[in-house]
Specification:
Helix content: 40-55%
Strand order of the largest sheet: 9-8-13-12-11-10
Distance between the termini: 57 Å
Number of strands: 18
CATH topology of the largest domain: Alpha-Beta Plaits
Number of domains: 4
Number of helices: 17
CATH architecture of the largest domain: 2-Layer Sandwich
Shape: elongated
Radius of gyration: 36 Å
Length: 573
């Protein structure tokens, strides 16, 4: 890291009368930076020494306990102080040899002040240089802030922001948003370093939290190693970067990075923070526009699903603004995403702490990216409740085949995203194609029924209504009818589980899922084999049926599936 606004001890010894000070120990630390100058004449100063502090003393407070001076050197090393100057002959005859040895050990410059030289003659020139450097830093910050603010007011892009910031801090700057999109100026001379840093071949070797200078907040320094192929051999290329979060209104929009090719200073970090703030404002503006467009889409989605034949021409006309031709076949697709695990360690770090609404918006953003592809710009996307709804315009010659291609490619596009891999489950329900606006609502209902069934299965990601089979028949029955059927068969078992906090229903469900295999049921439930046998007999006792009877067993299996279906739909619509 670059030295802060200050002056090294070695440079200080070239100033006026300060060059009369004699280095008696710790010469290895002459490159330590002086930020502050203080006179100490009290022994309790040891608890208050600061980073970059240059101390002057006559030894008055140590005259009776000279061993405390050795302790002071240790404290200064721990605080990363810059040096100690002692004026002997008045209160101490000479600088103790053990103090010199300690200064050499820790690399703390130890200087002897001539008896005729006052402390003010030493302090004045050093503070003059430090003040001058501080003014230069303040001017740099002021100019940098003014330049970045002007960019914000003139509507510059994030790429422009990165370029201007990189010019100010003399290191390449880029932004990685929470969607994984990298912003780097085409004019950046080292933009290939970012591609290398974020490449799949790059391995993070260090992620260290740092306190930088006088900045109290936590900063992040990362090193990433990637192999760069050469004609001779593969050699590792190590890059180090500083990372600062881009946050606004409790929303995390990504990070701003600076790859450290040249020494970086505290003012550079402050300018990076300023750039991060400006980037956050840009992302906030985008979010506001996104919200307006989302509400506009959702409003039209409600119109489509509550179809009014009297306004059909107006609906068709309005749909064209969304690049949707409702005079061609359409079908409804409903998408749900959820974590397959409750273990936080299995959730990618970038998504930890993101609430359900934000996660849904991220999914919506990715779907809009898919919609931006040439073959899929006839998809209308909106949100209804907790689910994302797509109304897909289909080809007239082969609507079913076209629908399957769209859904298959959409799923591949979603699962290719890192955020939707690893324990993140996408479920898609698909309704049948319709040839009129009035049937879009029916396709929506079918997609919803398909999704409900899909949520019961851990295997299938995509469920088409036309493939539901038995469940398609159930979806056409009314809720009260299905509830009555379940109650007639399973009421005693449900009541038993409720009163005893039992697992008879879960056992019965697993029993049928394993094709009535007691051993597999036991293994799947992590329950003793004899316990499973006992539970099945208890179910037969409570219901008065025999699961060995094919008709009884079929009725119970149907009731269990209906129970799952009804339970999954409660509170979902």
């Amino acid at each position: 890291m670059k030295k802060q606004y200050g002056i090294t001890v070695e440079e200080a010894l070239t100033l006026g009368v300060v060059n009369r000070l004699n280095v008696v120990g710790g010469s290895d630390g002459l490159n330590r930076v002086i930020k502050l100058v203080n006179v100490i004449e009290a022994p309790d100063i040891m608890d208050w020494v600061l980073e970059g502090e240059f101390l002057l003393t006559t030894g008055y407070s140590f005259r009776e306990f000279p061993e405390l001076m050795t302790m002071l050197i240790t404290k200064m090393a721990q605080a990363n102080s810059s040096g100690l100057a002692i004026k002997p002959k008045r209160f101490i005859k000479e600088i103790p040899s053990d103090l010199i040895a300690s200064a050499n050990r820790y690399g703390i410059p130890l200087l002897e002040v001539p008896y005729d030289l006052s402390f003010s003659e030493i302090i004045a020139p050093i503070l003059g240089v430090i003040t001058s450097k501080q003014n230069q830093v303040l001017q740099k910050l002021e100019q940098g802030n003014r330049k970045l603010t002007e960019m914000m007011l003139h509507g510059s892009t994030l790429n422009d922001l990165c370029y201007e910031t990189s010019m100010l801090i003399h290191n390449p700057v880029g932004i990685m948003d929470r969607e994984g999109k990298l912003y780097v100026s085409p004019l950046c001379p080292n933009k290939d370093q970012f591609e290398l840093f974020f490449s799949k071949d790059s391995i993070e070797i260090k992620n260290e939290k740092l306190r930088f200078g006088n900045i109290k907040e936590v900063k992040y320094s990362m090193e990433s190693t990637s192999k760069e192929s050469t004609s001779e051999k593969d050699r590792p290329n190590t890059l180090q970067a500083v990372r600062i979060p881009i946050v606004a209104d409790k929303s995390d929009y990504g990070h701003i990075y600076s790859i450290i090719n040249n020494p970086i200073s505290e003012p550079d970090i402050l300018l990076l923070e300023r750039a991060a703030t400006i980037a956050a404002l840009d992302f906030t503006k985008r979010k506001a526009i996104f919200e307006i467009e989302k509400n506009y889409h959702n409003e039209f989605l409600e119109i489509l699903l509550s179809y009014d034949s009297e306004n059909e021409e107006e609906i068709i006309k309005r749909a064209r603004k969304f690049n949707l031709d409702l005079q061609k076949p359409t079908a409804v697709i409903i998408i749900n995403d959820q974590w397959e695990t409750s273990d936080l360690d299995q959730i990618p770090p970038s998504l930890k702490g993101i609430n359900e609404q934000t996660a849904k918006e991220q999914l919506l953003t990715v779907i809009h990216s898919f919609r931006g592809l040439p073959d899929y710009n006839h998809l209308f996307v909106g949100i209804k409740g907790a689910y994302i709804i797509i109304v897909a315009q289909l080809s007239e010659d082969n609507p079913n085949g076209n629908l399957k291609d769209i859904v298959s490619n959409l799923l591949n596009f979603l699962t290719a995203e890192d955020r939707f891999k690893n324990n993140h489950q996408i479920k898609i329900g698909v309704g049948r194609p319709s040839n009129s606006i009035g049937n879009i609502k029916q396709s929506y209902r079918e997609a919803w029924e398909a999704l409900r069934v899909g949520l019961l299965s851990k295997k299938s990601s995509v469920i088409y209504f036309e493939d539901l089979g038995f469940f398609k028949i159930l979806s056409e029955k009314s809720g009260p009818e299905l509830n009555k059927f379940v109650e007639e068969l399973l009421h005693p078992v449900l009541e038993y589980d409720h009163q005893k906090n039992g697992e008879l229903i879960k056992t019965l469900q697993t029993y049928f899922e394993t094709n009535r295999n007691f051993k597999l049921t036991s293994q799947k439930m992590f329950t003793h084999y004899n316990t499973i046998l006992y539970r099945i007999k208890k179910i037969e006792q409570l219901t008065g049926i025999s699961l060995d009877n094919p008709e009884d067993s079929l009725n119970v299996e149907i009731a269990i599936n209906i129970h799952k279906l009804l339970r999954s739909s409660r509170g979902s619509q």
